[in-house]
Amino acid sequence: MVITPLHDRVLVKPIVRSLSDVLIVENREKFNEGTVIAIGPQVADVKVGERIKYGNGTYLDWPVHKVDGEDHQLIQEGDVACVVED
Fold it and tell me: What is the CATH number of domain 9-16+29-84?
């Protein structure tokens, strides 16, 4: 499946932190971290390939879309909190 974001949407591949396949850990972080995979034509502040922090504390409730068998989230640019640089 190919997802092409429209307007101010950003397709993000979340960076998932797996501690164990047995333990269930409640995520208390306010932001998720992920890599920008694609952007819509009205996105101005992030670029494809950048690592970002996004969300508002409820990102775990946002829909997840499977692309080539991997989880992705489609968010609005306004939900991006910052670009993470190494």
Answer: 2.30.33.40
